[in-house]
Amino acid sequence: MTSTIIVLVVGIVVVLTAVYISWRAGRLDRLHIRLELAQESLDAALMRRRAVVLELAGSRLLDPATSLVLAAAAHEARTAGPEEREHAESDLSRTLRAVVDQERFREKLAESPGGGDLLDELDTAVAKVVYSRRFYNNAVAVTRTAQRRWLARTLRLAGHTEYPEFFEIDDNPPAAMATE
């Protein structure tokens, strides 16, 4: 009778441990999926911002020097490699701030035919970059925390995946666009 109870208790402990480990592995998998989706969302937001900036630069609504500076910054961000990407995106943000924060920039552009629509698109694109980066960095923090837990490290529940990296750029919107 005693040996039966001991075997039953040990069996229950083994089953509960297996269920817990399986749950942790599933959670880690879901976090990695969330991280991949956040990365794709961030990439799409950055691509959209570059496209809107290039459209603004090519719209002939700005003076040639401003158009050239915007186009160069957007092109640099588009063609940057993985190591230079954060720097190039930050440069694009700073260039946008320098251009949009010029005196009466928004008023002059809004008065031009099609300028108001471009401003709306630019406002939306800039805001999406801010939110997408925050969401991505939040997903990175949660995933890194889950990967660092002793059970995940000991049993290698994350497999051979490396710790995800934060995406740190200067994404402050121009003062004329700040809506927060």
Structural topology:
Layout: H1 2-57, H2 64-79, H3 85-100, H4 105-111, H5 115-148, H6 150-155
Describe the structure in your own words:
- The chain crosses the membrane at residues 6-23.
- This is LemA family protein.
- Keywords: Membrane, Transmembrane, Transmembrane helix.
- Helix content is 75%, strand content 0%.
- The model has no long low-confidence stretch (mean pLDDT 91).
- The N and C termini lie far apart (69 Å).
- It has one domain (34-159).
- It has 180 residues and is mainly α.
- The chain has helices at residues 2-57, 64-79, 85-100, 105-111, 115-148, 150-155.
- The longest helix is centred in the N-terminal third of the chain and has 56 residues, at 2-57.
- The chain is built from 6 helices and no strands.
Q: What structural class results from the helix and strand content?
A: mainly alpha
Uncertain spans, ≥5 residues at pLDDT below 50? none
Overall domain count: 1
* Fraction of residues in H or I helices: over 70%
Roughly what is the average pLDDT, rounded to an integer?
A: 91
Protein name: LemA family protein
Transmembrane segments: 6-23
Keywords: Membrane, Transmembrane, Transmembrane helix
